[in-house]
Specification:
The protein is an alpha+beta fold. The chain is built from eight helices and ten strands. The protein has one domain: VC0467-like (3-Layer(aba) Sandwich), CATH 3.40.1740. Strands 1, 2, 3, 4, 5, 6, 7, 8, 9 and 10 form a ten-stranded mixed sheet that branches. The longest helix is centred in the C-terminal third of the chain and has 7 residues. The protein is globular and about 45 Å long.
Length: about 200
């Protein structure tokens, strides 16, 4: 018997909110799933920048954060906690899932999640990681689902599931990420990118 992790883990993929999703926390959200198994799911919203500068709350990390150098709201859970997500540059094969680096090759303080994307230990000295990271984004809070909860939302048509690209994490224009991700799909989803912000106009 196959486990869910073997056959259908969505770790590393994007959840893109459908226009029908009514939860204001996730209106036009693009969520990167960092963990998805039978115990539940955890991810961060990639397109919710806040006005707070990274340098104002995390000493030493501001210079490593990609533009815009602000904290992003990763979701409604644990808003007082911070998560760092980064991409290792030049790791194109791993980014495409064709190659997993051997454990031990990743820089200290970096835990690979999917392809070139991984979590950064914000307790580590920033200078240890500065040379290795291509881009860094800091998130306050995260998005979480209990066992089976995300699967129920998928059945209800709340989310599109699409492949992530390393550039999604560090998009310099996060407000347009929802449309950009949909537009690059080679399917009817590309048409959804033209959906008006005000549903009554459709």
């Amino acid at each position: 018997m196959c486990t869910m992790t073997e056959v259908s883990s969505l770790t590393g993929r994007l959840l893109v909110a459908t226009p029908a999703l009514a939860d204001p926390n996730f209106d036009r959200a693009v969520v990167l799933l960092l963990d998805h198994d039978e115990e539940g799911s955890l991810g961060v919203v990639l397109n919710r920048p806040t006005p707070v500068e990274v340098a104002d709350i995390l000493e030493g990390w501001g210079d490593l954060a990609g533009a815009p150098g602000v904290v992003f709201q990763g979701g409604p859970v644990s808003l007082d906690s911070a998560l760092g997500i980064a991409v290792i540059p030049g790791d194109e094969k791993a980014a495409q899932g064709a190659l997993s680096r051997a454990r031990g090759e990743d820089p200290v303080g970096f835990r690979r999640v999917h392809g070139a994307i991984g979590l950064v230990d914000l307790e580590a000295p920033p200078e240890l990681l500065a040379a290795a990271l291509g881009s860094l984004r800091i998130f306050a809070g995260y998005s979480g689902w209990g066992p089976g909860q995300l699967e129920d939302e998928l059945v209800d048509g709340a989310w599109y599931v699409v492949e992530s690209e390393p550039g999604d994490v560090s998009s310099p224009d996060p407000e347009r990420l929802w449309r950009a991700v949909l537009r690059r799909q080679r399917s009817d989803l590309a048409m959804v990118a033209t959906y008006p912000d005000d549903a009554s106009l459709n």
